Amino acid sequence: MPENLLTAAGVTAGYNGVPAIRGLDLTVGPGEIVSLLGPNGAGKTTTLLSLVGLLPLMKGSVTALGEPVSTRRPHLMARRGVALVPDDRGLFYGLTVRDHLRLARRRPSPEREKLIFESFPALAKLEGRKAGLLSGGEQQMLAIGAALLGEPKILLVDEMSLGLAPKIVQEMLPAVRDLARREGIGVVLVEQHVELALAVSDRAIILNHGRPVLAGAAAELLRKRERLEAAYFGANEFSDTDHEVMPA
Fold first, then answer.
1. I want to staple 201 with a disulfide (CB 3.0 to 4.6 A). Which of 28, 35, 161, 248 is the partner?
2. Each residue of 188-202: b (16+ CB within 10 Å) or e?
3. Nearest in space to 124 (alpha carbons), one of 98, 100, 105
4. What is the maximal distance between C-alpha atoms in the chain?
5. Residue 31 pLDDT > 90
6. Contact call for residues 186 and 28 (beta carbons, < 8 A)
7. Which range, of 27-31, 50-54, 190-194, averages the lowest pLDDT?
8. Which tens digit of pLDDT belongs to each residue from 74-118?
């Protein structure tokens, strides 16, 4: 197993020849949670799509589980253990919770399902309910639970808290953190609630206008709130070449 499960070096990517992210460096080790933070349009979703091979790179490289990520066969990433939970959750509203869990794993694993239900207790009471009838929080639990059922080595989650009350997010984030550490899963988390994300993360990268402008240990970023806010809201003190790295 490589020291870093996921490595991005000098990544520039975008759409129709126009970069949406520029010069991104990122590493994720086993059991580590790295948050990508920033305002809307900062390039967070573009980054995730680039990391899993769903968006071609203009510059740079991405390596996952010791192999280069290829846009020609991104489905192979899932087979090798890279799971992406998109911001729309990727659920089939006509299928039940139980149906989704069965689809998420080729071979049934009662032990694995038990672990998922222990991590997200609300799902255990909803096995027969269709996904379209679940609340937003329950749908997100199902999407993440289904991804984790497949025992991924790398998990990427886009906007976990989208449309959810902070209380629900406070329940879900620790569950993801605990599973990541217990199983050595490397997690990349895109999140709107900055403080909640930093509370469960090891490191974080702040993106603004497609550029990484601040990176460092989550605990250190929480202590340097003024610097964090300046990076997040795009204060004028950041130039096109700024990229501050805070102590790990």
1. 35
2. bbbbbbbebbbbbbb
3. 98
4. 54
5. yes
6. yes
7. 190-194
8. 677 888 899 999 888 889 999 999 899 888 876 777 888 888 888
- Written as six digits, the tokens of 90 are 């990727």
Q: Write out the two tokens for 221.
A: 């970023």
Model pTM above 0.85: yes
Mean pLDDT of 29-53: 94
User: What is the residue-wise DSSP string for 70-113?
Assistant: -SS-THHHHHHTEEEE-TTTT--TTSBHHHHHHHT-SS--HHHH
The answer to whether 62 touches 50, Cβ cutoff 8 Å, is yes
Residue 92 · residue 100 · CB < 8 Å:
yes
Name 154's bridge partners: 82, 186
Residue indicated by tokens 């289904």: 146
Question: Is the pLDDT assigned to residue 25 strictly greater than 90?
Answer: yes
